[in-house]
Amino acid sequence: MTMGTVWFVGAGPGDPELITVKGRGLIERAGAILYAGSLVDEAATRWAPPGCVIADSKGMTLDEMSAWLLAQAARCETVLRLQTGDPALYGTLIELVQPLDVAGVPIGVVPGVSSAMASAAAAVESFTLPEVTQTTIFTRVAGRTPMPEGEDLAALAAHRCTLCIFLSITLLHRVEAGLRAAGWAEDAPVLVVHKASWPGEERIVRGTLATFKQLCRQAGIVSQAMVIASPTLGARQWPQLTKSRLYDAAFTHRFRQASA
Ligand code: SAH
Fold this sequence. Notes:
By secondary structure, this protein is an alpha/beta fold. The protein has 2 domains: about 5-110, Tetrapyrrole methylase, N-terminal domain (Cobalt-precorrin-4 Transmethylase, domain 1, 3-Layer(aba) Sandwich); about 115-235, 2-Layer Sandwich (Methyltransferase, Cobalt-precorrin-4 Transmethylase, Domain 2), CATH 3.30.950. Helices cover about 30% and strands about 20% of the residues. The protein has 8 helices and 10 strands. It has helices at about 20-30, 35-45, 60-75, 95-100, 115-125, 155, 170-180, 210-220; strands at about 5-10, 30-35, 55, 80-85, 105-110, 135-140, 160-165, 190-195, 205-210, 225-230. The strands form 2 sheets. Strands 3-2-4-1-5 form a 5-stranded parallel β-sheet, sandwiched between helices. It has a 5-stranded mixed β-sheet with strand order 6-7-10-8-9, sandwiched between helices. S-adenosyl-L-homocysteine binds near residues 89 and 225.
């Protein structure tokens, strides 16, 4: 029996138009789609062909999901696991790939636009700026999943780089405590984006370490939000920027000779 391929496809952050062309193409020829909750429902139903078997994994255990994907791969050529954002971040990619490997089912992964990137886009922010920070950390605070040794927010925040904090909107007291413990100033900017890229539902909260928790509470934001702490936030309004060397007139690189 030849098995179909199971594709793990990043559906993007919410706007159905933010799926990749490749991801959409796979949806259009999928025989079966297992999607992760309400977030990616829209993309699946918008482009799936008639007769495609579509299921929500919300109520399934990991074993049930594996069994579902296996059964569908035995039946059809193209099976999709649709996940929010990018499959490499806070998903169950490896847990689901391992049983498919054991069963000899071919798999493929199609990347997606992470909610971290969609949040930056929504707020017109850059995670990196010359001589401010050149590093971005994707992290979370401990919830039911504990943080590995050395990855406490306080330790990571000590780098004074950009921090994209996933899965933490109900744990803002821990975010606040972590940034404080690392010595971030009370007026350090903190950005929260709720439902980044969702048409008509996106909300942006700009505050500081001292105010962001209260502002989120007032705005009633309790789910699907990205918390970003970064020394680059608000740079659009800065009067003085250190310009990137790449575009500096005095800098020679492969595509351009320095003018002086
Ligand atoms: N793989 C996903 C992350 C899944 S974990 C990605 O790359 O984006 C789920 C967390 O992602 C949520 O708790 C929230 O922090 C964040 N998230 C997902 N979609 C979001 C959106 N549209 N806006 C803001 N945050 C979002």
